């Protein structure tokens, strides 16, 4: 097809594929990618693109702006598009281009939306494609139906899920000469299941590729490794083939002769793999490619799009030797992405940990230690040294067993990987460093003092807290640069040393727990220990939750406050509180609560997240939930008191059982269990101290953000949390970061929609948890049975409530909370939950411990629980066995 320069109407409405450039807004994703492949010299069937301008004209004639408002916008829009006339200029341009391909030549007519085949959203299969279209009228009809398919229910739902504005999307149409395919299929230049970037996966079947793409056939599958070896060759039954009909259209034919043989030779598999790598290099990212082989064996590319489901790699990970990365975000109960400033804080804190704990000075503390990595807006740690060390292999998986059990399973699964051999076998360097830390912070003395006098130990921790709070001040007259210096000193010098000065107190309680178990032997089984750990005193998190319940009780007694909580959305109540317009009793009580606990938040280890004092919407929503609990026997304070009495009774029962064997052992068990009750609750204190520090840092950065916004370097004060510390300093020097912040906010919003984050990630993109059936524990089996780690004994059957974000969550009293993970910001929901199921965690993870304290049955480490369980389903949680039955 050739055009003269005077055919301006054609140029606006129709373009040859090689002429498209990268103009996504003109051609849509599919057409733009095909044009790029042609310009790169890769084999693509000839064709043209009916641009988005043609769609715009038809949409205007259809009155689409008005149609998409109201009920059933998808159906109304489709009907309007199909009924609208095609402008004469459009039809003339399309037919002229079609005749340029040949006389009544068979073509494929494909949709190409502007929100399609993008790096972050593939829209695969959301719009329609028509194959073997023959004749001018058939081409125009297929084009019209492609336009209408922009408004299929599935496409509208997909855009809603990905946060794409319907009004911003337009559709182009690709018309290409049909390939008389003998074999066709799909090629992934990275394994879409395991994430391995060095593996090519090819699905192939006789006939047109539609059979493979639509899932109508079980294709042959070939997997090729990075060295070009075919490491897997699995034949499908290939029961169905899609073939072109003479005169237009396609038909499905049943099993053909030769279906029990591979439809590709080894040479063809390798050639397709090499072609796929060429495409990947051209686009600079792993690709999902549709291909075809004609009767002469010529390879054709009919489509290429990014593989959008792959988890991103840390910067530079793929360039060096094999590495193993562990996700610290998940270990802290955080599945959501972390703001850039939150990551910057982690880097500075990690530099201080490196120096204080490991004795290694970091050359660039703001940049973080070498083991620090980021991927997908989550924090990772390079765990390769752990795998290559005998000490690491011995200790770290055991820590994971109680902290995040499935991570321990994954790490052990890498012990036999020849890429990570043990290189360090000596324990001496580790013991020497451990001794140095113990001496520096007088940890043995702290342990002894806490065992002798728990009250004195708690008072000492309180003094540390008082000194910390006193240090968290900054004079109002500080300049923005001085304020930033203050922030960096806190993060890089002051906060970390407090941790080893206070954690040994709770550590003494855990040590006493181990001693009690060793001395009591069979008289102190896990069930009894779970009872002992219920309703522990001196726990800042449970105290916070009970204070919130007390506030709900007070609000229930005040008619005006109760009515406000029942009848007003929490976000509106929060705005009224900040304006001082809440009912007096509710305002007074909430202000008092926030005065003590306003530094906390959901995802609170990310200082980019608003604190409850910044936005109390979540707290007010929880209060409203509490008002729905109208049975006094289920009141959290009553349950907590029952738990305390049950724990004390269990201590007496265990001591009595031990006394029958030995009076001396009974005395030791009584002392140890009392220390457990007196000290283990302090395990939340150091976290509370850290979060207080982060809240102060956030407040200082907010002041700086306001100054930068006033100067025009940022659009809003909160944009400061989408910069790092180096960039904030540059902004104070006059740099404009508004465009960078906008891009980062877009990336952050995209990551908020990611449902699955790897516990462990290899530098070649492999997610080890996805590579072995052994690691599939938790998969639905035996009538909907899910398995995980026992966390809190007891059995409960109730309605499930899947909660991905606790802010705004509605949890009816007695419902079983199903969550990806939890941190202290979630725990107010625990007070009225009937049970707990979490995807993350181990026996001593935060959610597990709090569940035991509240006496609610809990199972943690249940893989894909939020995907396999739906809100409203009735489930049974067996907390002692780690099983969840989905009814």
Give a quick precis of the structure.
It is built from 33 helices and 25 strands.
How much is the radius of gyration in Å? 31 Å
Kindly report how far apart the N and C termini lie.
61 Å
Number of strands: 25
Q: Which segments are poorly predicted (pLDDT under 50) over 5 or more consecutive residues?
A: 1-11, 120-125, 773-781
Helical content class: 40-55%
Count every helix, treating DSSP H or I runs of 4 or more residues as helices. Answer: 33
The description of the largest β-sheet is: 8 strands, mixed
Structural class category: alpha+beta
- So what's the overall shape? globular
Portion in strands: 5-15%
Mean pLDDT: 89
Largest sheet: spatial strand order: 18-25-24-20-21-22-23-19
Structure explained in plain terms:
- The chain is an alpha+beta fold and 887 residues long.
- The chain is built from 33 helices and 25 strands.
- α17 packs across α20 (499-520), α20 (499-520) packs antiparallel against α28 and α21 crosses α27 (636-659).
- The longest helix is centred in the last third of the chain and has 27 residues, at 685-711.
- The protein is globular.
- It starts with 7 loop residues before the first helix and ends with a strand.
- The model is unreliable at 1-11, 120-125 and 773-781 (pLDDT under 50).
């Amino acid at each position: 097809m050739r055009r003269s320069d005077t055919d301006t109407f054609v140029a606006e409405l129709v373009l040859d594929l090689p002429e498209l450039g990268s103009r996504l807004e003109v051609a849509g994703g599919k057409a733009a990618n095909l044009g790029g492949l042609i310009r790169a010299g890769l084999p693509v069937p000839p064709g043209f693109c009916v641009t988005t301008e043609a769609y715009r004209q038809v949409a205007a004639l259809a009155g689409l702006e008005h149609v998409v408002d109201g009920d059933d916008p998808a159906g109304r829009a489709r009907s309007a598009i199909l009924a609208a006339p095609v402008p004469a200029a459009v039809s003339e341009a399309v037919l002229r281009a079609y005749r340029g391909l040949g006389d009544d030549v068979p073509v494929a007519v494909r949709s190409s939306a502007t929100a399609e085949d993008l790096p972050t959203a593939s829209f695969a299969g959301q719009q329609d494609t028509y194959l073997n279209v023959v004749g001018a009228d058939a081409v125009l009809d297929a084009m019209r139906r492609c336009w209408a398919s922009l408004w299929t229910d599935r496409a509208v739902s997909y855009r809603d899920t990905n946060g794409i504005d319907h009004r911003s999307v337009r559709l182009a149409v690709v018309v290409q000469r049909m390939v008389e395919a003998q074999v066709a299929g799909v090629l992934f230049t990275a394994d879409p299941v395991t994430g391995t970037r060095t593996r090519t996966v090819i699905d192939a079947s006789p006939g047109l590729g539609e059979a493979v793409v639509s899932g109508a056939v079980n294709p042959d599958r070939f997997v090729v490794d990075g060295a070009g070896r075919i490491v897997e060759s699995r034949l499908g039954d290939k029961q169905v083939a899609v073939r072109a009909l003479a005169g237009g259209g396609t038909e499905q034919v049943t099993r053909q002769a030769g279906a029990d043989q591979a439809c590709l030779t080894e040479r063809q598999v390798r050639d397709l793999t090499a072609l796929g790598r060429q495409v990947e290099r051209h686009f600079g990212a792993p690709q999902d490619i549709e291909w075809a082989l004609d009767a002469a064996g010529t390879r054709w590319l009919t489509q290429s799009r990014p593989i959008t489901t792959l988890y991103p790699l840390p910067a530079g990970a793929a360039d060096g030797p094999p590495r193993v990365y562990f996700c610290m975000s998940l270990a802290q109960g955080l599945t959501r992405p972390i703001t850039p400033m939150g990551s910057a804080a982690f880097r500075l804190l990690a530099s201080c940990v490196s120096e204080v704990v490991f004795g290694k000075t970091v050359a660039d503390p703001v940049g973080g230690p070498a083991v620090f990595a980021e991927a997908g807006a989550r924090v990772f740690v390079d765990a390769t040294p752990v795998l290559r060390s005998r000490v690491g292999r011995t200790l770290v998986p055991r820590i994971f067993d109680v902290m995040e059990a499935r991570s321990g399973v994954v790490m052990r699964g890498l012990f036999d990987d020849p890429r990570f051999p043990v290189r360090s076998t000596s324990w001496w360097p580790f013991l020497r460093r451990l001794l140095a830390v113990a001496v520096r912070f007088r940890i043995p003395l702290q342990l002894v003092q806490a065992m002798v006098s728990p009250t004195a130990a708690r008072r000492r921790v309180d003094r540390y807290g008082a000194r910390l709070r006193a240090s968290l001040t900054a004079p109002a007259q500080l300049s923005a640069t001085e304020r930033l210096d203050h922030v960096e000193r806190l993060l890089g010098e002051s906060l970390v040393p407090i941790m080893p000065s206070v954690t040994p107190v709770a550590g003494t309680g855990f040590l006493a727990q181990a001693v009690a178990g060793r001395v009591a032997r069979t008289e102190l089984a896990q069930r009894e220990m779970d009872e002992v750990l219920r309703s522990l005193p001196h726990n800042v998190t449970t105290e916070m939750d009970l204070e919130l319940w007390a506030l709900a009780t007070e609000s229930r007694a005040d008619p005006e406050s109760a009515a406000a909580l029942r009848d007003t959305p929490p976000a509106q109540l929060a705005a009224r509180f900040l304006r001082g317009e809440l009912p007096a009793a509710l305002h007074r009580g909430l202000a008092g609560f926030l005065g003590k606990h306003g530094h906390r938040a959901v995802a609170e280890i990310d200082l980019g997240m608003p604190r409850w004092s910044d936005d109390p919407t979540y707290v007010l929503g929880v209060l409203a939930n509490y008002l729905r609990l109208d049975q006094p026997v289920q009141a959290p304070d009553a349950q907590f008191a029952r738990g305390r009495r049950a724990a004390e009774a269990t201590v007496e029962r265990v001591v009595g059982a031990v006394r029958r064997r030995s009076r001396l052992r009974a005395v030791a068990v009584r002392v140890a269990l009392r220390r457990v009750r007196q000290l283990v609750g302090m395990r939340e204190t150091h976290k509370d101290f850290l979060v207080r520090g982060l809240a102060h840092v956030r407040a200082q950065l907010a002041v700086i953000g306001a100054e930068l916004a006033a100067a025009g370097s940022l659009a809003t004060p909160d944009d400061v949390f989408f910069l790092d510390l180096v960039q904030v300093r540059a902004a104070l020097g006059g740099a404009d970061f508004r465009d960078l912040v906008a891009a980062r906010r877009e990336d952050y919003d995209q990551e908020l929609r990611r449902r699955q984050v790897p516990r462990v990630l290899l530098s070649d993109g492999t997610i080890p948890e996805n590579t072995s059936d052994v690691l599939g524990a938790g998969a639905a089996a035996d009538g909907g049975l899910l398995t995980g780690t026992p966390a809190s004994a007891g059995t409960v059957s109730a309605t499930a409530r899947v909660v991905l974000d606790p802010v705004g969550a509605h949890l009816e009293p007695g419902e079983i909370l199903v969550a990806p993970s939890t941190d202290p910001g979630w725990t107010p929901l625990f007070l009225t939950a009937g049970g707990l199921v979490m995807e993350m965690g181990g026996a001593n993870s935060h959610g597990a411990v709090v569940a035991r304290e509240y006496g609610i049955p809990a199972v943690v480490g249940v893989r894909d629980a939020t995907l396999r369980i739906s809100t409203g389903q009735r489930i049974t949680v067996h907390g002692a066995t780690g099983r969840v039955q989905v009814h």
